[in-house]
Amino acid sequence: MRLRSPGMFLLLLGALQATDIQEQEVRALVGSDVELSCIFPEGHTFDLDDLYVYWQISILGHPTTVTYYLSGNSSAGLEDNRYRDRAWLAPESMKHGDFSLHLYNITPQDEQKFSCLVFRKSLQLKKILDVVVTLHVAANYSMPMVSIPSGPLEDEELTFTCTSTNGYPKPNVYWINKTDNSVLTEGLQNSTVFLNARGLYDVVSVLRIRRTPSVNVGCCIENVLLHQNLTGIGQAETPRATEPSNTGSHTGVHRKGHGTVLSALAVLGMVVVVAAAAGSMCRSRCPHGIHARCQAARPEQAFSDYV
């Protein structure tokens, strides 16, 4: 019996006896290549003319074939155009029980449960292998960029904006106080996550916080699948208020005071010089030892001369 139509073959799957299902999980980065393993557990060689191999996914509850290999065909076929030139089976490996699917250039849309079904024609289409591989797709987010507030100093509220792009899957977004690494209340932030043209996520998060003299915050983008946590830093300093400068007037006062002191010193110096001169004249006219008495007698003598 030769079945060339994949759709016809899918109609027969429900009538086949169920087998034990093996389940696996695989992670892959967007743009990379990955191998979804489907290997017969016992060492065995197979005749390709005796095999029916199917890889399929479920879309809206309906099975859709990614690629297949039918007994008697010289190569594998494709049914879903999304996997054209991206999905490949290795016939030589299948001869040795390796029915793995090779996927190239992974996209976010490849995050699916892939089923590997292998039947043997010689055993009346008995299903000999049933493997389900869950493919998790991830992409690194860009380093978060935090804009620094530039509003008037009179504003009582500071607004920080954080952006990060081209990541997958959806991230956890939160803000922290870098002073003590505490997580800020979610009510202070408004985060928007949306798909871009590449099917990846972009993030815009806005934080509004009360102004303080020094604010140091961090915007954290967490990719749980990659165990990745990226943090962008935002800092804002509020300049301290300064008093008007009076340097000129202070300088004038200082100079004025300095001039006054110099004038006083000059007057004092003149007084000292005059006093010294007067003393010298007195010593030259009075006998030694009676200087005080001579000074006391001079007024009386002068007065008597006029009487």
Structure description:
- The chain has 307 residues and is of the alpha+beta class.
- The protein contains 4 helices and 17 strands.
- The chain has helices at 6-13, 91-94, 247-285, 291-306, and strands at residues 22-29, 34-36, 51-59, 62-69, 77-78, 87-88, 101-103, 113-120, 126-138, 145-147, 157-167, 172-177, 182-183, 189-195, 201-210, 214-223, 228-237.
- The longest helix is centred in the last third of the chain and has 39 residues, at 247-285.
- It is rod-shaped, with a radius of gyration of 49 Å.
- The N and C termini lie far apart (173 Å).
- The model is unreliable at 243-257, 271-275 and 277-307 (pLDDT under 50).
Largest sheet: 6 strands, mixed
- How are the strands of the largest sheet arranged? 1-9-8-3-4-5
Helix content: 10-25%
The rounded distance between the terminal residues' Cα atoms is 173 Å
How much of the sequence lies in strands comes to 35-45%
SS element count, helices: 4
Sequence of secondary-structure elements: HEEEEEEHEEEEEEEEEEEHH
Radius of gyration: 49 Å
Mean pLDDT: 77
- Strand segment count: 17
- Shape verdict: rod-shaped
- The helix-and-strand class reads alpha+beta
Low-confidence stretches are 243-257, 271-275, 277-307
Brief overview:
The chain is an alpha+beta fold.
Distinctive features:
307 residues; alpha+beta; six-stranded mixed β-sheet; four-stranded antiparallel β-sheet; 4 helices; disordered C terminus
